[in-house]
Amino acid sequence: MVCQICGAKSGYYPLCKNCFKLKDEGKITKCEDCGIWKKGAKPLCYECWLKSNKAKQKVSNGYKISDIKVEEKNFRFKFPPPIRTEDGHFVRSKAELIIDNWLYHNKIVHAYERRVPIEEELYCDFFIPIGKIWVEYWGSEEENYLQRKDSKKDLYKKYEKNLIELTDKDIVNLDDKLPLKLRPYLPNYTFE
Questions:
Q1: Measured between alpha carbons, how far is 192 from 169 in angstroms, rounded to an integer?
Q2: pLDDT of residue 151
Q3: Which helix (H) or strand (E) covers residue 150, if one does?
Q4: Which of 63, 80, 107 is the last residue of a domain?
Q5: Number of domains the chain contains
Q6: Do 109 and 147 belong to one domain?
Q7: Residues of the chain with pLDDT under 70
Q8: What letter does residue 9 receive in the DSSP assignment?
Q9: Given 10, 33, 63, which residue is the final one in a domain?
């Protein structure tokens, strides 16, 4: 496992020795909302703080549900994830199974279908907390899917999120492709 703060090897612990010392000094704390380790003594990480502030604004400004939100909720309800990965996540496709198992075998802490902390309701395929990396697997060429893909990419760009995009071509050579795509966000990580 790697440290959730700096990306250094940490054995079976979420923090390395150096970051653990900073935790004892109160310079690193756990977010009270999502549970991710973060720098600083504030109760919420930036994403959760942003989400809570946006939620307050939505209530006061008469929040309007977006088309992406309705479409994603319908999709998630109609098609629950049936495939179990080696680390216990349930995913929707064999490609997502391969991605999830690759992350697990490379000891990269990750979440499946995590909500992106932005004003619009958006879910990513995978989230890697140590580099705040959002991973999307684009697995279809249908017109509606491509429109949703473009909308999601625009939102990631608008909110300056670290996005890694994977396609079927990447899945075939995942051992070669994914480390190259992760390297800019995890410079200290050693891929096994």
A1: 22
A2: 94
A3: helix 143-158
A4: 63
A5: 2
A6: yes
A7: 1, 54-78
A8: B
A9: 63
pLDDT for position 46: 74
Give the model's pLDDT for residue 51. 73
pTM above 0.70, yes or no: no
Can you say whether the dihedral through the CA atoms of 139, 141, 147, 153 is positive or negative? positive
* 91 and 26 belong to one structural domain: no
- DSSP codes of every residue in 40-78: SS-SS-HHHHHHHHHHHHHHHHT----HHHHHHHHHHHH
Domain containing 192 equals: 65-192
Location of structure tokens 């923090």: 15
Confidence (pLDDT) at 158: 94
Cβ atoms of 14 and 35 closer than 8 Å: no
HSE, CB side, 13 Å, CA atoms: give it for residue 41: 5
Q: Quote the CA–CA distance of 4 and 51 in Å, as a whole number.
A: 21
Q: Tell me, yes or no, whether 101 and 151 share the same domain.
A: yes
Q: Please say whether the dihedral angle defined by the alpha carbons of residues 22, 28, 30 and 34, taken in this order, is positive or negative.
A: negative
> Can you tell me which residue has the tokens 């697990």?
104
Which 3 state secondary structure label does DSSP give 135? strand
Length of the chain: 192
d(CA 52, CA 72): 21
Which of 120, 163, 102 lies closest to 138 in space, CA to CA? Answer: 163
